[in-house]
Specification:
Layout: E1 4-11, H1 15-23, H2 25-32, E2 34-35, E3 46-51, E4 60-69, E5 73-78, E6 95-104, E7 107-115, H3 122-149
Antiparallel strand pairs: 1-7, 2-3, 3-4, 4-5, 5-6, 6-7
Helix pairs in contact: 1-2, 2-3
């Protein structure tokens, strides 16, 4: 499949704790490596922040929050792998990132799906898919470590 990336992990923590790591902008920014303003994500808002991952500090991440259903779902739209400050990505269709939480043996199952890659312009689609495919695997480990460290 080239249109979507799907990942999941079971985190040894209650759903409420995993939810806070996703829905609180500061906590999200800590494990995702982006400096967002404080507060909780709200449906309909546009949130911007500087990436803090080494080598990407020049990138401003922008998301449009699509849905917030407490302790169940958070989704947002963004332009995947939009790292070139000289490119106007606003003319491209965004992908949709959805975090879903479910109870699971041993804690909380966190599923992440990013869909809509088939609509990305052909000249950058493969690289955006490849980079985010790898990136989501890493981000799930990042959130798992974050939740464990913030007992």
């Amino acid at each position: 499949m080239t249109d979507r990336i799907e990942r999941q992990i079971v985190i040894n923590a209650p759903r409420a704790k995993v939810w806070r790591a996703i829905a609180d902008k500061t906590q999200f920014g800590t494990w995702f490596r982006v400096q967002f303003p404080p507060g909780a994500f709200a449906a309909g808002e546009i949130v911007r922040g500087n990436i803090t991952h080494p080598g990407y500090e020049h990138v401003v991440m922008e998301i449009e929050v699509a849905d917030v259903t407490p302790e169940e779902t958070l989704s947002f739209r963004w332009h995947p792998y939009a790292i070139d400050p000289g490119v106007d990505y606003s003319t491209e269709p965004p992908t949709l990132v959805t975090f879903r939480l479910e109870d699971a043996d041993g804690g909380t199952r966190l599923s992440v799906t990013e869909s809509g890659f088939d609509a990305i312009p052909a000249h950058r689609r493969d690289e955006a898919f490849r980079m985010n495919d790898h990136g989501w695997s890493q981000q799930l480990h990042n959130i798992e470590r974050h939740v464990a460290a913030n007992g």
